[in-house]
Amino acid sequence: MEARLLTRPVVQLLAPTRQTTSLSPLITTRGHKTTARTKRSLKIAPHSSFMPDRSTAFPAATSIVYNPPASEASPDHTPFIFLPQNDPRRPAIERMRLKAKSTDSHIPGVSETRVLPPSALAKNRGNAPSYHLTQADVQEMRKLREEDPLTWSINALARRFKCSDNFVRIAAPASASHRAWLQGKSERQQERWGPMKTEARRQRRQRQDMLLRGEI
């Protein structure tokens, strides 16, 4: 018996011992080590008070979400139109307003009668249309335009008669000969264009036509 044990391999002799003393494998857990995983784990759904009322057919048009931040309530925030006549907050608001008014009066540079700045309409009152031109002025404008259209251009006539450029274009349009001269001048300028400028202007006209057709 002892001879047979000695003739067996050493590995077979140690096999039962290895099975009984084997360790269980380690199970590691992965933590939130990246910003994306941390943000996903902290992503919380909004509170129901922030969500619109979906019980109606058109929640966006029939409901208003009002969720102000937590703060101390002040009676000065409630106007008198929302308070009954016998509400005790009315005298409190009056006292607060009187106190604020007396405090402002002691501040240097603050007067009792405050003057509001001029309205935006008053600033643009100079650009309002003025109908000061008579029929004689229109006749003189047309005469100057026909005599010397280069000297009396649209801008020059608008400055002299103190009117807009559009009024000059309507009241005193250029003659047919002057328009033909301007067209020839524009064509001579286009003949001096290079290939790049010519192609750029062609593409610009093409884009304008596509915009008018609604293609872009």
Automatic annotation (TrEMBL):
It comes from [Torrubiella] hemipterigena. It comes from the Eukaryota. Residues 198-216 have a biased composition (Basic and acidic residues). Residues 181-216 are annotated as: Disordered. This is 60S ribosomal protein L20. GO terms for molecular function: structural constituent of ribosome. InterPro entries: Ribosomal_mL58 (IPR024388). One of its GO terms (cellular component) is mitochondrial large ribosomal subunit.
